[in-house]
Structure formats: structure tokens, C-alpha cells
Design goal:
By secondary structure, the chain is mostly helical. It is 44% helix and 4% strand. It is built from 3 helices and 2 strands, in the order E-H-H-E-H. It is elongated, with a radius of gyration of 16 Å. The protein starts with a strand and ends in a 20-residue tail after the last helix.
Length: 103
Amino acid sequence: MKIQKIRGQKRRSKNIQDWIDANLIYNKSYFFKNNRDYCEVLVHPWCDISIINSAIPEPRRKNRRKIIAGLLDIYESWKAELDTLTKDYYLKIWLFEPYISKS
């Protein structure tokens, strides 16, 4: 199976930052309506399905560290907001090693 080449690392890094910024604010209405909420790593091309029968490689080095740091930032932000509520909650980071993009 071929491995698809990822180009534009600066653009990917900006997309990761946009994903982090979009998920820092906790969606309370969704949480109260469904009693759950979650955040997945949804950054192109790692969240996509390959239609040309090739494997999409996992993020490496800087982008990998940025995704993990983003998950930690989102966790801390959500924890601060959930601590203000009187409702019990379960908040964890599910990190799928070595497939960080599936976390």
C-alpha cells in the first residue's frame, strides 16, 4: 500500500491551531441536552478517509506535539468550566498511541 505524502506543514500547523481555538470553549447546551460531549482531532488530512487506496501517515514531530498540547489545553479549559457546575462529570483524554490523529 502506498503512503500519501503530506505537504504544507505550516498550513497543517495553522489548521491544528484553528481546531484548538474552536474547541477551547465548552458547549454547555449540548452537554445538558445529551449528558455528554467530546472533542476529536479533526484536522485535514489526518481525519479524512483515503479514497485512492493509500495510507495517510500520522502527524510527526512538531505537529504531533502541537496536537497533544492542544488536547491538554482543551482538557484544562473544559475542566475549569466544568468545575463551576454542581453536576458530576467524567473528563478524560483518550490518547491512542501511536495513532495520535485518532485521539
